[in-house]
Design a protein that fits this description.
single chain; 340 residues; alpha/beta; seven-stranded parallel sheet; 15% strand; globular
């Protein structure tokens, strides 16, 4: 099988032929060099900006399957990236990067009969029902009101002036487009909703995720949860578990086609403040501080306090459940090595 991976700058190797597309290859140099590596004949890298390169459709035609995150977190001068700060300060770039620039890719897959695995985001769910309950309501602590189900949970966003929701709204619309292509034009697709995937090589953009490399990655990449005095909670899933189920999706077309899957670990719900303590990250020179969302992200920020994935559908279709507990602390000091 030949897989075209767009935004391939950080992909983890797999036992298939790969057409890797991105504007940078820093994180996969160990897969590309030297040319004598036993798998280099299976991995072909193309330095392409999908916004303006006519070669894209030709590469998609060469593949059996397209895997695309619709989000390139790279040099902001050459390609769009999106962080919570950008949702507020660069909403046009956020919408274009996650919706407008993605439209041709979906079109090419549909017109050329190529299967698509789309990596979306759990943020598409927006706010949970539970976050609207008064703090003194006994149901406020009931987990049931924070569980998100692919085929039942509503997508609840904030008002238009809360630009923070521009990202989630763009992601939701591309999901709806993909689903419509499946309904009307028989596009084979799977949509993945990641719930905070973590690993030792988690992305860090200097000056964007934090002021320096001294900021622990778990704090830099999930720093929004340190707002509200660190009480916001998220569920975390180790990358090895996530990749395991993505491979199951690739290899089981009949059981994954047309489905939307939550990929997370509902048993790993903690505050980022707590997770920073158990992640084995190097300590900061100064302690963490609590800041308001307006101070950290700017005007227009909004969020949900909890997001818990329902795993019923993915377990039924693929027989998969996540295995790694957050208390094992795989993020700190763990060397990810994958054999190919």
């Amino acid at each position: 099988m030949t897989i075209c991976i767009i935004s391939a700058g950080g992909f983890i190797e797999m036992p298939h032929k790969v057409i890797a597309v991105d504007v940078y290859s820093d994180k996969i140099k160990h897969l590309l060099e030297p040319a004598s590596l036993p798998w280099t004949d299976r991995i072909h890298f193309y330095r392409i900006n999908i916004k303006s390169d006519s070669r894209l459709e030709g590469l998609i035609r060469m593949a059996d399957l397209l895997s695309y995150s619709f989000l390139c977190r790279v040099d902001h001068k050459s390609c769009g990236f999106c962080t919570p700060t950008d949702y507020n300060t660069r909403p046009l770039n956020t919408i274009y990067s996650n919706l407008i620039d993605a439209l041709p890719v979906v079109k090419y897959c549909s017109e050329n009969g190529k299967r698509l695995i789309h990596f979306s985001t759990c943020e598409v769910y927006g706010k949970t029902v539970g976050c609207f309950l008064p703090n003194d309501n006994p149901l406020h602590q009931d987990t049931e009101y924070y569980v998100l189900t692919e085929d039942a949970s509503p997508c609840i966003f904030g008002p238009i002036d809360k630009q923070r929701w521009s990202y989630a709204c763009a992601k939701q619309l591309i999901e709806r487009l993909i689903n419509a292509e499946g309904t009307e034009n028989a596009l084979q697709f799977t949509i993945v909703k990641p719930f905070n995937w973590i690993d030792p090589r988690i992305d860090f953009i200097l000056g964007i995720d934090g002021p320096s490399e001294g900021v622990p990655r778990v704090l830099a990449c999930f720093s929004n949860n340190l707002l509200r005095r660190g009480q916001s909670q998220r569920t975390f899933i180790y990358i090895k578990d996530a990749i395991e189920v993505v491979l199951l999706m690739i290899e089981n077309l009949n059981r994954s086609n047309g489905y939307i899957f939550n990929v997370g670990n509902p048993n790993n719900e903690v505050t980022v403040r707590y997770y920073a303590k158990v992640s084995n990250e190097p300590p900061l020179e100064t302690s963490t501080v609590d800041v308001s969302s307006k101070e950290f992200y700017g005007e227009g920020y909004d969020d949900s306090d909890r997001r818990i994935p329902d795993m019923t559908i993915i377990n039924r279709q693929l027989g998969w459940i996540p295995k790694t507990s957050v208390w094992v602390s795989p993020l700190g000091g763990c060397n990810l090595t994958w054999n190919i």
